[in-house]
Amino acid sequence: MRVMGIDPGIASTGYGIVSQVQGRLKFEQAGCIRTCADQPIACRLQLIYNQLQGLIALHQPQVVALEEVFVANNCKLSLDLGQAIGVARLAAVQAGLEVFSYSALQVKQAVVGYGRAQKQQVQVMVKTLLALPQPPANDHAADALAVAICHLHTKIYG
């Protein structure tokens, strides 16, 4: 099974492709879609959507797993983030893919074994689980890989 994990955001949307072959996790690709703060929100959302569509077409994942982020103290950030999540969902659904959502707590629990783990702990476990030479340099890409791993662990063991 091939999973695309997405860590949605307006400024940076992380993505990571992880497959599972004979019970082993395999890293395929990870990166970050960056938008310019001086662009209107609609243009930034369109860029995220178009890039995700292209990545889905290229990698052909069977499912998409999203990190649902909750930001209670900044209403504008929450609204913008919600739109980025919606665009990611739309790109997946239009490609005929099922979308699964996981909280940050669920992702950390599945990857590190502790729901309150620090970002650095998540990065180290992503490196270990995917047998990477070093942890992903980009936080958003690492989080997206962690979401994909969470989905695979949840569907296997959950």
Characterize the structure shown.
The protein has 158 residues and is an alpha/beta fold. The protein is built from five helices and five strands, in the order E-E-E-H-E-H-E-H-H-H. It has a five-stranded mixed beta sheet. Strand 4 (63-68), helix 2 and strand 5 (98-103) form a beta-alpha-beta unit. It is globular, with a radius of gyration of 15 Å. The protein starts with a strand and ends with a helix. The model has no long low-confidence stretch (mean pLDDT 93).
Please indicate the percent range of residues in DSSP E strands (runs of 2 or more): 15-25%
Strands in their spatial order, largest beta sheet: 3-2-1-4-5
Number of helices: 5
Radius of gyration: 15 Å
- Bulk shape: globular
Low-confidence stretches: none
Assembly level: single chain
Mean pLDDT rating: 93
Determine the fraction of residues in helical runs and give it as a percent range: 40-55%
Class by SSE composition: alpha/beta
Q: Can you write the helix and strand succession as a string?
A: EEEHEHEHHH
Number of beta-strand segments: 5
Main beta sheet: 5 strands, mixed
What is the fold's blueprint, element by element?
Elements lengths: L1 E6 L4 E10 L2 E11 L6 H19 L3 E6 L6 H20 L3 E6 H8 L7 H11 L9 H19 L1
In short:
By secondary structure, this protein is of the alpha/beta class. It has 5 helices and 5 strands. It has a 5-stranded mixed β-sheet with strand order 3-2-1-4-5.
